[in-house]
UniProtKB/TrEMBL annotation:
Belongs to the aspartate-semialdehyde dehydrogenase family. Keywords: Amino-acid biosynthesis, Methionine biosynthesis, NADP, Oxidoreductase, Threonine biosynthesis. Residues 4-119 form the Semialdehyde dehydrogenase NAD-binding domain. One of its GO terms (molecular function) is protein dimerization activity. It comes from the Bacteria. This is aspartate-semialdehyde dehydrogenase. Pathway: Amino-acid biosynthesis; L-lysine biosynthesis via DAP pathway; (S)-tetrahydrodipicolinate from L-aspartate: step 2/4; Amino-acid biosynthesis; L-threonine biosynthesis; L-threonine from L-aspartate: step 2/5; Amino-acid biosynthesis; L-methionine biosynthesis via de novo pathway; L-homoserine from L-aspartate: step 2/3. It comes from Mangrovihabitans endophyticus. Homodimer.
């Protein structure tokens, strides 16, 4: 019999993308149960061409489920994942709750699919959305040339902060529309935007904000620390040097990363292009003369990581600079977790 899947958080934005993916990918699932954290859930939502009732989360909802994908905030994942595991479910969690636990594999299937096999806690984690898109391009180059160091700057969409982030950006843009004066200094949007900053620390419209997540030791944001720690874990390089600066930009969907990667061997931009052309889940878009660059406007709604602007560093023949963009709602979150769930299902079938 085909395995039973539960989607926990099916009514949230990432859950919505998951339902779209389940409706369009090769179907490996028997029953799909849609689950919400909302105790008043009861609506039906479309999935695989039919309306499926959404049940409020409860221990019994996991009875008979083989795999559960969680797209819920960390505290809810911490509470409900063990409840599901207790009932025999393999949990694929998209939150940061378990990512760095040594007994929980952290998986990007194109990079380290074999890691799903060892999951003593019954939980597999998907990585941070920025890390995932970036590693899709970095990992194939690492496998050929041996990665030594990463210097990263991210340009992250407001949807990474949830639907509220998207709503706040749209509200702020509406307030600014048509106003060419914008306060006493051109470009100073603070007054026009007002106090409603939503989940952000500063205005998002017509601005960039070099802060994502919480403050951690040494002034690093939690997002920057996650990029370092998760890259190390997924690539199996515990000593990899990683420095990231994570920045929120007024883009609705699509996280981008400027990457400076130092390798153990010399490589040319053409050699890198050849590797990336053959890498699964990567699209090479690298023709500046024809205005072809990887950008969120093009990557939104697509599965792969878009890579371009590949240059050999001017001062180091072992280093490359390039730009990566990926849809943070798809490969960054929903798609990656759905792929992991499919891997778990396939592997259980083989056993
Ligand atoms: C962000 N990476 O973009 C995070 C998503 N949780 O805010």
């Amino acid at each position: 019999a085909q395995p039973t899947l539960a989607v926990v958080g099916a009514d949230r934005p990432v859950g919505t993308v998951m339902r779209e993916l389940l409706s369009s990918r090769r179907n490996v699932w028997g029953e799909v149960r849609l689950v919400s954290l909302d105790p008043a859930a009861g609506v039906s939502l479309p999935c695989r061409g039919v309306d499926v009732p959404v049940s409020p989360v409860a221990p019994e909802i996991f009875d008979g489920v083989d795999v559960a994908i969680f797209d819920v905030p960390e505290p809810a994942a911490e509470y409900w994942a063990p409840v599901a595991v207790e009932r025999g479910v393999t949990v694929v969690d998209g939150s940061a709750a378990f990512r760095m636990a040594p007994d929980v594999p952290l998986v990007v299937p194109e990079v380290n699919r074999q890691a799903v096999r060892r999951r003593p806690r019954g939980i597999v984690s998907g990585a941070n959305c920025t890390t995932t898109s970036m590693l899709m391009a970095v990992a194939p180059l690492h496998h050929e040339y041996g990665l030594r160091e990463l210097t990263l700057a991210s340009y992250q969409a407001v949807s990474g902060a949830g639907q509220v982030g998207v709503d706040v950006l749209h509200d702020q843009i509406s307030k600014l529309a048509g106003d060419r004066t914008l306060g006493s200094r051109p470009g100073d949007v603070r007054q026009a935007v007002g106090d409603d900053l939503g989940p952000f620390r500063a205005p998002m419209a017509l601005n960039v904000v070099p802060w994502i997540g919480d403050l951690t030791d040494g002034g690093w944001s939690s997002e920057e620390r996650e990029m370092r720690n998760e890259s190390r874990k997924i690539l199996g390089l515990p000593d990899l040097k990683v420095s990231a600066t994570c920045v929120r930009v007024p883009v609705v969907t699509g996280h981008s990363i400027a990457v400076h990667a130092v390798f153990g061997a010399e490589l040319s931009a053409d050699e890198a292009r050849k590797v990336l052309r053959n890498a699964p889940g990567v699209i090479l878009v690298d023709d500046p003369e024809a205005d072809e660059f990887p950008m969120p406007v093009d990557a939104v709604g697509t599965d792969p990581s878009w890579v371009g602007r590949i240059r050999r560093a001017m001062d180091d023949p072992r280093a490359l600079d390039f730009f990566v963009t990926g849809d943070n709602m798809r490969k960054g979150s929903a798609l990656n977790t759905v792929q992991i769930a499919e891997l778990v299902a396939m592997e259980s079938e083989r056993r």
